[in-house]
Write a structure and sequence with these properties.
The chain has about 240 residues and is of the alpha/beta class. Helix content is about 40%, strand content about 25%. A six-stranded mixed β-sheet has the order 6-7-8-3-9-10, sandwiched between helices. Helix 3 packs parallel to helix 7. The protein binds adenosine-5'-triphosphate and magnesium ion. The site of magnesium ion has 4 residues, from helix 1.
């Protein structure tokens, strides 16, 4: 049995219009893998299809040897894959604590709610201070932290983060990348969708580039930093 995520030939369409064609990629246990691409390239579509938020038209998503293609999100979460979607999707009218409890609703997380909560509050002291406050009253950056913290409450083995640093102040961007490093050091594999290409390639083990719904490049992140195409398209060099 292979371990980790294996995506092959993934294809997705919106009302018959192709958004993603033939996306194949892997994320090994313990890896950080960056998924790069311009606006509209199909990054969000791909990760939604992997996480069960969108049913692919074609292709296979295999997780630790099990075919999870087309499974609804809650069943994918129950197997250890958690997507933190783009755009700070927290429940505005629930408190910070209630948002975190929603994140822990999967059976795999239920036994460890108290421990995971302590862990999350240790990582995000600001959320601990504001635990009784409505999520809607948090700053944008704090809401983004809450979205990630909520994902952590599901006790994932693979976290897919879709644009976690979007709209954050530079100092918070740095702590976001530090958080990803820390999650990975705890044994969580991470798939990172980011516009912050240089920082992502510094952090990731491997990376893929999506262009118009297709993977056009993949390899070791360190090598991608030196790749002429990547330099020109993403690094302004
Ligand atoms: N709900 C939708 N209905 C119709 N078309 C969509 C929908 N969501 C995305 N698309 C289209 O699918 C393509 C891929 O979009 P997607 O959101 O996956 O790109 P992305 O790489 O995540 O871009 P961004 O960097 O802007 O987040 C785009 O052409 C987009 O317009
Ligand atoms: Mg997107």
């Amino acid at each position: 049995m292979s371990s980790g995520l294996e995506v092959s030939g993934l294809g997705c369409a919106y009302r018959g219009v192709r958004a993603v064609s033939d996306v194949s990629l892997t994320v090994g246990t313990g890896e950080i893998v960056a998924l790069l691409g311009a606006n509209g390239a199909g990054k969000t579509t791909s990760v939604k299809a992997i996480a069960g938020a969108l049913r692919p038209e074609s292709g296979r998503v295999i997780w630790n040897g099990e075919d999870v293609t087309g499974m609804p999100a809650h069943r994918v979460v129950a197997r250890g894959i958690t997507l933190v979607p783009e755009g700070r999707l927290v429940f505005q009218h629930l408190t910070v604590l209630e948002n975190l409890q929603v994140g822990a609703s999967s059976p795999r997380a239920q036994g460890d709610v108290a421990r995971n909560l302590d862990h999350v509050f240790a990582i995000f002291p600001r959320l601990a201070e504001r635990r009784a406050q409505n999520a809607g009253s948090l700053s944008g950056g704090e809401q983004q932290m809450l979205a990630i913290a909520r994902g952590m409450m599901s006790a994932p083995r693979l976290m897919i983060l879709d644009e976690p640093s979007l709209g954050l102040a530079p100092q918070l961007v740095a702590s976001m990348f530090e958080l990803v490093r820390r999650l990975n050091a705890e044994g969580i594999a991470v798939m990172l969708v980011e516009q912050n290409v240089h920082a992502s390639l510094k952090l990731a083990h491997r990376a893929y580039v999506l262009e118009k719904g297709r993977i056009v490049l993949g390899g070791a992140a360190a090598e991608m930093l030196d790749n002429p195409f990547v330099k020109k398209a993403f690094l302004g060099l």
